Amino acid sequence: MLRAVFLFPLFFLALLSAPFAARAAMEIEVVGGAANRIAIALLPFSSAQGQPAPALQQIVGDDLKRSGQFSLLETQGMAPPDLALVSIGDWRSKGAEAVVAGQVTALPGGRFEVKFRLLDAVKQTQLVGYSYTITAGQWRATAHQIADIIYEKLTGTRGAFASHIAYVQKQGKRYELKVADADGQNPRTVVRSGEPLISPAFSPDGASLVYVSFEDKKPVVYVQSLREGGRRKAAAFKGSNSAPAWAPDGRRLAVVLTRDQASQIYLINVDGSGLTRLTRGGNIDTEPVFSPDGQTVYFTSDRGGSPQIYRVAASGGEPKRLSFGGSYNVSPTLSPDGRYLAYIGRDGGRFRVVLQDLANGQTRVLTDSARDESPSFAPNSQSVLYATVQGGRGVLGTVSLDGKTRARLSEPGVDAREPDWGP
């Protein structure tokens, strides 16, 4: 269940030297939804010759459905002849609370102009209208941006559809570290190996991934640039170097080292300088993660006799235990807004995602599966990404903070694991 040296084997990896080759993307299955979903009439966008598939409104609609916050009215074949001619009143009479209309126009040079309007069907007013000039390669990104705008305007919380996820994919004996859109589409390979991969994590600005490589016959922490493609060693000390986590400033890492025999947490600059030890003792301390303000480090430790979640000031001090339900709680992650802690808890032999309110300590189990691991919050703190097992294969899942909306992201014939949700 753990991503580091605590009850979980370290894996080997090698850096990808060949360019990314297109692969089939993940399939999405959504279950459940919020009790009071916002009814939207997402009208078909007028199309242009040569535009990519699927249509923009389909991508936008899939995003909104996956959030569990919206119900989409039937609008097939009801595209307005002009954006200015949308009949808000008609859609209000059909139960719509909001209406989305758009159009796509072909431009010279293979570009497209995309316009859309978001209308308040209750107040009979326009909430927002945008126009984009894009290339075919920006098609899906534009759809995700539109979905983010709709989500924020109607819920008051920024969307996360235009964000990205990283995960490890296994097919046969081949392992690949991938980066994809938040819906699992547009995947590209960052690292490829004949041996397993482990512990990828996005930098705060999304420009880099940190991960652990065993290619030097020992675990070494590397930082990989997603823009330039280069990489550098961040931790290559005697013994094991594992479980890297970014500080919010993007200049430091928390890592787990065995250079002093026991697995302990250290802080280090991204360039490998400034190593300082954070935790001490003969116990196993692992899986560190920073609080959003960078002042606290949360981690897993067996110092109390069983794996539990603790926190310690990033400047050092005495750790404080946070998890008390059950005898096995691991893999902490903090919501970007600082309100919640998510981790994997064992209950009756099942490993599931648990959410803890840091203000009052109350917890709730979010998932109904049995072999969950590696939770990670969305950038807007509204859902959790995790890995689990379905039909004997590793798949990725997302779950809302109330546990009512769950989605599965899977690709036939492959395993997916070790996810991280980044910008």
Main β-sheet description: 5 strands, antiparallel
Identify the CATH architecture of the largest domain: 6 Propeller
Unreliably modeled segments:
1-23
What fraction of residues sit in β-strands? 35-45%
Please give the share of residues in helix: under 10%
Strand line-up across the major sheet:
1-29-28-27-26
Distance between the termini: 25 Å
Radius of gyration, taken over Cα atoms and rounded to an integer in Å: 23 Å
Which superfamily, in CATH terms, is the homologous superfamily of the largest domain? TolB, C-terminal domain
- Which CATH top level class of the largest domain fits? Mainly Beta
Structure, described:
This protein is mostly beta strands. It folds into 2 domains: 19-155, TolB, N-terminal domain (Rossmann fold, 3-Layer(aba) Sandwich), CATH 3.40.50.10070; 164-422, TolB, C-terminal domain (Neuraminidase). Helix content is 8%, strand content 45%. The protein is built from 3 helices and 30 strands. A 5-stranded antiparallel sheet has the order 1-29-28-27-26, with helices on one face. Strands 3-2-4-5-6 form a 5-stranded mixed sheet. It has a 4-stranded antiparallel sheet with strand order 9-8-7-30, with no helix packed on it. A hairpin with a 6-residue loop joins strand 11 and strand 12 (220-225). Helix 1 (56-67) crosses helix 3 (139-155). The longest helix has 17 residues, at 139-155. The protein starts with 26 loop residues before the first strand and ends with a strand. Mean pLDDT is 90; it is low at 1-23.
